[in-house]
Design goal:
Helix content is 41%, strand content 9%. It is of the alpha/beta class. The chain has two domains: 6-325, Rossmann fold (3-Layer(aba) Sandwich); 330-372, no CATH class. The longest helix is centred in the first third of the chain and has 26 residues, at 25-50. Bound molecules: thiamine diphosphate. Thiamine diphosphate (TPP) binds at residues 83, 85, 134-136, 163-167, 192, 194, 196-198, 259, 263.
C-alpha cells in the first residue's frame, strides 16, 4: 500500500539496465562486504546473547541493503541520527568491528564507557554517528536541530535521520518534520518500513496510504523505494542529499523492506509474523539480489559469499574476544564527563564510593551482593 510508485533499479536477475551506480568495482564490492559483515555481526551477537556473554542485541537480517545503500550516499562530513537497527551505516564508513563490539560489552573502550545499552553505538570518527536513542523518535527533532545548525553555520553537511515505521507515530516525527519543512533544513528522513514495530503490523500503525505520503502535510517531498535494492536506495538517498546540500530542503524516503528476525533478542516473532510472509520476503533477500548484479558485472561467482562470510565471521569473533577481555569501565567514569568542574556534593559521593570500593571491593556479577 502506497500512494507513490516504488522506485527500483535491480531486477530479480540482477539486471540494472543502463543505471550508473556512481561507484567503482571496488566500491560495489565494499557495499557487498559490508552487508555480509552486518550479517556476521548480527549472527554473532545473537550467539553472544544466547550464551550469556552480552545482554542484548537487535537483529538486522533482511534490511542490510537499506542501511548500506543509504550510508553510501553520505560523505564523512555528514551526520547520522540512526535507528537502533543500522549496523551497516557505521561499518560502511569504516568504523571498526571491534569498536562496535566494545559497545556490545559496555567495556572501558566503549565510546559511551558502558553507559548505554548494547547496540547503542556512537562514533565521531570517521563519520558522525550520533548515539542511538532508545525512546522511539526522540532523535528526529535532535537531527533536525543539528541540520538546522549546520545551515546557520554555512556548512554543507546534511543529517540523515533514520527510523522505523513505528517511529512515524512519535511526537518527534511531527515536530521534526514540521520544523524541517518550514525551515528547509538539510535533513534526509529515512523511514525504514520493515513491516512491524515489535509485534504491531503497519496496518495498525497508520491509516494513511503508506508513510512517504505523510511528508506532504509538512511540505516535504516523499519517495518510496525498494529497500532490498541497494542501488535504488543509494540513488534516492543521493538525490535527497543533493537537494539538502543545495538548500532545497528535506526529503522523506520510505524504504520498503522486511525484518527477517525478531525485534530484539528478547522477542519471538513466530508468535505474530505469518510464516508465508517470511517465506515471501526470503525470496527478496537483498544479499542474493545484489550478488546477481555483481555477477552480471563479472564481480561475483558461486562460493564467494561463503568465503567472504567466513572472513567476516573470523573478524567478528576476534573482535568479540578482544572486547570481552577488555576491562569494565572504572568506577570514576560514573562521575566524569558531566561537569567541567565536579560540584562538591558529587565529589563527596564519588569519594564515598571509592572508599567503599577500597574497603569492600567491587561486587562481582552474579554473587548476589551489592556493596551498599
Ligand atoms: C517512546 C517509546 N515508546 C515505546 C518504546 C518501545 N519500543 C521499542 S522499539 C519499538 C518499535 C519501534 O518500531 P519501528 O519504529 O517500526 O522500528 P523497528 O523496530 O521496526 O526497526 C517500541 C514500540 C520505546 N522504545 N520508546
Amino acid at each position: 500500500m502506497s500512494a507513490y510508485e516504488e522506485f527500483k533499479v535491480l531486477g530479480a536477475d540482477g539486471s540494472a539496465g543502463d543505471h550508473d551506480p556512481g561507484l567503482s568495482d571496488e566500491g560495489l564490492l565494499h557495499c557487498y562486504r559490508t552487508m555480509l559483515m552486518v550479517r556476521a555481526f548480527d549472527d554473532t551477537a545473537m550467539k553472544l546473547q544466547r550464551s550469556g556473554r552480552i545482554g542484548f542485541s537487535i537483529p538486522n537480517r533482511g534490511i542490510e541493503a537499506t542501511q548500506v545503500g543509504a550510508a553510501s550516499a553520505l560523505e564523512t562530513k555528514d551526520w547520522i541520527f540512526p535507528s537502533y537497527r543500522d549496523f551497516g551505516m557505521p561499518l560502511y564508513h569504516g568504523v571498526k568491528v571491534v569498536d562496535m563490539m566494545h559497545n556490545m560489552f559496555g567495556n572501558a573502550l566503549d565510546t559511551a564507557k558502558g553507559r548505554q545499552m548494547p547496540v547503542h553505538f556512537s562514533f565521531e570518527d570517521p563519520i558522525r554517528f550520533i548515539s542511538i536513542s532508545s525512546p522511539i523518535g526522540t532523535h528526529i527533532p535532535q537531527g533536525v536541530g543539528a541540520a538546522h545548525a549546520m545551515k546557520m553555520r554555512g556548512e554543507d553537511s546534511v543529517a540523515l535521520i533514520s527510523f522505523g515505521d513505528g517511529g512515524t507515530s512519535s511526537l518527534g516525527f511531527h515536530s521534526g518534520l514540521n520544523f524541517a519543512g518550514v525551515w528547509k533544513s538539510p535533513a534526509v528522513f529515512l523511514c525504514q518500513n520493515n513491516g512491524y514495530a515489535i509485534s504491531m503490523p503497519i496496518e495498525k500503525q497508520t491509516a494513511s496510504d503508506g508513510f512517504a505520503v505523510k511528508g506532504e502535510a509538512y511540505g516535504i517531498p516523499g519517495v518510496v523505494v525498494d529497500g532490498n535494492d541497494l542501488l535504488a536506495v543509494r540513488q534516492v538517498t543521493r538525490e535527497a542529499v543533493e537537494r539538502a546540500r543545495a538548500g532545497e530542503g528535506p526529503t522523506l524516503i520510505e524504504a520498503l523492506t522486511f525484518r527477517m528476525g525478531g525485534h530484539s533478542t528478547s522477542d519471538d516473532p513466530t508468535r505474530y509474523v505469518p510464516e508465508e510472509l517470511v517465506a515471501e520476503w526470503e525470496e527478496k533477500d537483498p544479499v542474493p539480489r545484489f550478488e546477481a548484479y555483481l555477477a552480471s558485472r563479472g564481480l561475483w561467482k558461486e562460493g564467494d559469499r561463503e568465503t567472504l562470510y567466513e572472513e567476516c565471521m573470523a573478524e567478528v569473533k576476534e573482535a568479540a574476544d578482544v572486547a570481552q577481555a577488555t576491562d569494565a569501565p572504572s568506577l570514576e567514569t560514573i562521575f566524569s564527563d558531566v561537569y567541567e568542574e565536579v560540584p562538591d556534593h558529587i565529589r563527596a559521593q564519588g569519594e564515598a564510593a571509592f572508599d567503599l570500593l577500597r574497603r569492600k571491593g567491587d561486587a562481582a556479577a552474579g554473587d548476589g551482593a551489592f556493596p551498599l
